[in-house]
Design brief:
InterPro entries: P-loop_NTPase, Small_GTP-bd, Small_GTPase. By secondary structure, the chain is an alpha/beta fold. The protein is 45% helix and 24% strand. It has two domains: 45 residues; 123 residues, Rossmann fold. It has a five-stranded mixed β-sheet with strand order 2-3-1-4-5, with helices on both faces.
Length: 174
């Protein structure tokens, strides 16, 4: 009986040692790959940067169309109201560095105003869009620029802001 117990103990010890060596091998093998990838990244001196850009303005001024045109090169004439927020990503390489622009297309209708503070969080920049249409929407969207800017400053401190006049193609020539 004692002999069997010792054999079992030896088997268990061997199993534990084998398991330890397998784990050690896996750690060394995979960490070597991770270290090699990190060194390759350092040697190429390329980096990746991500920036969240909030796109705000009254509903119907063309925020979604502006983003689609910039990120995908497409334009849709039909108006589909944004519900809450939509996200689009645009990647560009500058001097060997990858720049990720993540556009947050934020709904401009008052129904979604309570969500704006959540959507603005961690924005690195903002584009306030207004319409140049010669109608009530155009006039109101222009008059609301200051309101949008004040709301943004309340939640985002001091981020760069661009004011973008949209729908210039819809202005009637006099």
């Amino acid at each position: 009986m004692r002999f069997k117990f010792q054999n079992l103990r030896i088997t268990v010890i061997l199993f534990i040692l084998l398991k330890f060596y397998i784990i050690q091998y896996l750690i060394l093998h995979y960490s070597k790959n991770i270290i090699q990838e990190a060194l390759n990244d350092l040697m190429t001196n390329s980096q990746e940067f991500s920036f969240k850009i909030s796109i705000i303005g009254d509903g119907g001024v063309g925020k979604t169309s502006l983003i689609k045109k910039f990120t995908k090169g497409t334009f849709e004439r039909d108006y589909n109201q944004t519900i809450g927020a939509q996200f689009s990503r645009y990647d560009i390489e500058i001097d060997g560095d990858l720049i990720n622009l993540i556009f947050w297309d934020i709904a401009g209708q008052d129904d979604f105003k309570f969500l704006h503070p959540l959507f603005y969080r961690e924005s690195k920049g903002c584009i306030i869009v207004f319409s140049l249409e010669e109608n009530e929407l155009g006039e109101e969207s222009f008059n609301h620029i200051e309101n949008w800017h004040n709301e943004l400053k309340k939640y985002c401190n001091d981020i760069p802001v661009v004011i973008f006049a949209n729908k210039v193609d819809l202005i009637e020539e006099a």
